[in-house]
Amino acid sequence: MSTILLVGGTGTVGRHTAALLLERGASVKVGTRTPATAAVPAGARAVALDVLAPATFGAALEGVDAVFVLSPPGHADQFATLRPFVDAVIASPAKKIVLMTAEGVQYADGAPLRRLEQHVEASGKTFVILRPGWFMQNFQTFWYPTIQQDGVIALPAADARSAFIDARDIAGVAALALTSSRVDGQALTLTGPEALGYADAAAILSAAAGRPIRYQPLDEAVFKAGLLNAGLPEDYASFMLVLFQTVRAGHAAGISDTVATLLGRARTLKDYAADHAALWRR
């Protein structure tokens, strides 16, 4: 039985990945800064791990065969943030690294996430790289407060389209990559099956929730000010602006069939909205 360590194992993708790995018979270690109180699936083991604290690396990696790595939110230079931990994984007996980055980073060699990919690719370890597009779950996390309070999705995306992906589908591919050799050595772009504008998304959420939800395009300066007022660092707020510049340029609209090919189907935004409709009801 393989032992797998998940970075971010209590987060949006990680908690679903943990559950799927347990179904596949793996031994799962969920890395968390708060192992005593972390909510993990029955059968998984919470272990102390902070990717910014090298003193936690050794015990977390002990006895591990494969590691799922992603960058914690709020850090614009993901290479600097994660390199010490990735180097510890490379030096460990672990045989495989599954790294989650983001759609499109392969086109920007100087970008921190692409540098991290290249570092893993050159490590000598068996690797898989997952490049997901924009999460559907953003509508229940980052974009949720204005949706719930005001019925508004307010973002600087203009009328551009994005091929939103359900985090549960990312987790499905991650679990496959961690427990089989089927996609070893590959970099996989992961998207949903359709490209939608945020106005389309608002209409889908409205129908599911039974209340009006609308999309309000924002000016970049207004959006950045809101991020700073929410307490995000200046560099991360600027990073978010760059991400939405790529959206407006059409780079998030491409559709990949990888999820459907590997998992048999890919969830649509209507599927996601139906499953989570209670979140947006008043």
What would you say this structure looks like, in words?
The protein starts with a strand and ends in a 7-residue tail after the last helix. Helix 1 packs across helix 6. By secondary structure, the protein is α/β, with parallel strands linked by helices. The longest helix is centred in the last third of the chain and has 15 residues. It has a domain of 161 residues: NAD(P)-binding Rossmann-like Domain (Rossmann fold, 3-Layer(aba) Sandwich), CATH 3.40.50.720. It has a 7-stranded parallel sheet, sandwiched between helices. The protein has a two-stranded parallel sheet with strand order 7-11. A two-stranded antiparallel sheet has the order 8-10. The model has no long low-confidence stretch (mean pLDDT 95). It is 39% helix and 16% strand. Helix 1 links the parallel strand 1 and strand 2.
